[in-house]
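[agent] plan:
  1. take the single chain provided in the ticket
  2. run structure prediction with default settings
  3. attach structure tokens to the ticket
  4. add a short note for the reviewer (M.T.)
[agent] executing step 1
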Amino acid sequence: MASRSAASSVLSLLLLAAFAASARAATFTITNNCGSTVWPAATPVGGGTQLDPGQSWTVNVPAGTQSGRVWGRTGCSFNGGSGSCQTGDCGGALSCTLSGQPPMTLAEFTIGGSQDFYDISVIDGYNLPMLFSCSTGVTLNCGGSSCPDAYLFPADNTKTHACSGNSNYQVTFCP
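[agent] step 2 finished; step 3 output follows
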């Protein structure tokens, strides 16, 4: 009996290891091409940082992450880890754990197993032009508050795109 239990445990560990190997993180590269500083934020992973013009920030998002968001904050002033932003402020924190306050252009995503989903939303307002792309999908471009690639209102449910699971992503402000 003990050997059957041990074999079952080993099999369970091997299956878990195989699943973990196939469920890898997606890499998000967030770039500021604006002429001024942008403070991108990402939830539920990533937090936030300051990006001067031309700088990039890389965030690894684990498989299984749902309802993820990336947005750019503008007009920020921070002293250490706290301060405020004119757009996209998340409770005065540099590293966001809450979603930002409108207006903000949102890159939204769900990182799944065999398929990921992503979109741009301006339902919460528009503050920065944005490109959002998946390495195995289409590039979404939002250059204004009524951009055709973005969700414009809550019932606008035709703007979500799919790509291969755990792909790499690019979010570019001011493309």
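[agent] step 4 note for reviewer: The domain at 26-173 is CATH 2.60.110.10 (Thaumatin).
[agent] ticket updated
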